[in-house]
Amino acid sequence: MTKILSIYTQDIRNIATNWTASVVILSLILLPSLYAWFNIEASWDPYSSTQGIRIAVTNLDQGTFIQGKPINLGLEIKKSLETNTKIGWVFVSHEAAQRELKYGNYYAAIEIPREFSQRIASVLTPNPVQAEIHYTVNEKINAVAPKITSKGASSIIQEVNQSFVKTANGAIFKIFNDIGVQLEHQLPLINKMKGLLYKLETLFPEINNGVDVAVKDLKVSHSLVQEVQARVPEAAELARKGTEFSTSLIQFLDQSRSALTYAAPQVKQTLIRIKQSLDAAQLGITAAEGLQDNKSSDVVLTNIDRAQQSLTEAVAAAHTFKSLTDSINAVAPSGALTGISTEMLSVIARIESLQNMLGQAFQQGQGKEPNVLLVNTSKKTVTLISSELDRMIGSFDSEILPSLQGAIVQANNTAALTRTTLIKAQHSLPKVQQILIDASKGLTLGLKEAKLVQERLPQVENQVKAIGDRLRALEKEGRLEDLIKLLELNYEKESEFFSEPVILAESKLFPIPNYGSAMSPFFTTLSLWVGGLLLVSMLTVKVKSQLEFSSWQVYLGRFLTFGTLALLQSVFVSAGDLFILGAYAKDKLLFIMFSLLISLVFMLMIYTLVSVFGNVGKAMAIVLLVLQLSGSGGTFPIQVTPLFFQAIYPFLPFTYGIGLLREAVGGIVPELVIRDILVLTLYGLISVLLGLALKNRINRLAAPLLQKVRKSGLIH
């Protein structure tokens, strides 16, 4: 132990007594501090000084009109950027922007195209087109600058989007608000319509039945129209024949009226002839009655037979008169003619009855005396009939003939009216035919549409039922009144909310005020390793003395010197970080103490490599430095580095040195501090063990090789 201390004390004495060595040693102590301080200061807050990053802005927007109002969003963006001092915005032409960007005078160029406002306004058209802002970056100038310029370009897009969303949402929610007011006014009508919909839903069975009946009735009506159409030609033929018949009938009646006028005396004469025949029969009967007592029965029977003959003539004449009257009455029915015909029929019946009585009298009188009673009754009957005929003959000119003539005139008028009606019917039949054709077409179309309704009605019923089910489901989920209240909310506040519905509430678990303070653990750790490399580069690990020392004594004795210098380096670096630069540390004392530990471990590792392996050890320490720059997670999260660095990350001293200082800067997590201290201590112990175990052996083996290398005159 004495020899170890003697080496250390001799080194201190030599430094103190040799001012040149003192200056060199002092420089070696201060150089790591300068390395750390410059880097920390350079990265103190780089994102607050981005106004020097020049970005060209070119506005080519021609603007547009929305509902008759001119807008130019490109000009609005330009005005907004003119007040933004976070980045050095430069407003130039398209040609100047591209030229200066190419030569590196601008880091990026942003161009607002001509149709920018027009595309934004296309949101109000059926085919909206997204607007674009052209962003061009020169990545050759600097690796970090494109990230900053990209952030600036993104902020423009975000500002435009947020403004657009706020404006659009404001318009939309204003419409919703108006709809809510209208819905509130129309709520009674909506409820009424809803009730009608539910009622319609229950009436569909009756509607279906009604449509079925309508289809059936339309089919029947169509069949009837077709049948009538088929009979129209027959009706036309009947009308034609009826017209011809009525024309003939009129002619016949005209002739009959003329004939009646001329034949009236003969008609009357017929009545007279009947009367004369009755008178003759009355004479025969009277004669028969008078001869019953004086003449033989044969003479009586002869008179009776003569009377019968006269009665036969009277019956024939009476039938002639009745036939004439019935014929005229058949053509032109008349009460008077019917009465005359009935009266004549009564006369015929009495005459025939009289004939029967005389016939009986004649039969009974064969070979004996005729029946006096029958003869007397016959005489009375003839008298009555004769009186009736006298009355008819007397009223012929005043009653019977006018009745006959009036009946013919009436028949003539009826025939003329019938003829006129049939002629009109004939003229109307084409129109009727056309009406029937139109009716057939209408019924065909109606039947087609009715069948279509019949086919589609189930689908409509299902849709109405679905709407009803949906309304009932909506009523279960919430009332329309609640929706109206929601729509009537303040549209301006709703617009502001939806333009930025989520606000990031940032909470810093371990707050660090600036980027430089956050980077101080990395640069401090790095400078301590660099300080160790400087010491082994400038100072020798060998001991030149007249005393004899073993290899382990030399190893430990000289390390005390290197360790002391390393501790001084760490004091200057850490204290300078805190008190010169003003770097933030949650616990300043621990920051200095952790720096002492890290520096001591790093120096032990580097010193062991050089002490054991000589110049090769220096190269190994430099290789470790290079690996740890990228593999320790000091600048970027280790998760974004290649897999190789992620694999070696847990085994690098920087990992735990940086981690330990971060605990002092941000805030202590005891478990992490203990872990980092234990791992660093382990690295130190392993280094000591390797140095004590291998120094003597490796030095002897490497001595011949070193002699040959030195002979080259290039390597000391």
TrEMBL record:
Membrane topology, record value: Multi-pass membrane protein
GO function terms (MF aspect): ABC-type transporter activity
Record bears the keyword Transmembrane: yes
Keyword check for Transmembrane helix: yes
NCBIfam families per record: pip_yhgE_Cterm (TIGR03062), pip_yhgE_Nterm (TIGR03061)
Primary location group: membrane
Domain ABC-2 type transporter transmembrane: 513-692
GO cellular component, one term: membrane
Pfam families for the chain: ABC2_membrane_3 (PF12698)
Name of this protein: YhgE/Pip domain-containing protein
Domain of life, source organism: Bacteria
UniProt subcellular location: Membrane
Record keywords, A-Z: Membrane, Transmembrane, Transmembrane helix
Residues passing through the membrane, by range: 21-38, 518-539, 559-584, 590-610, 622-652, 672-694
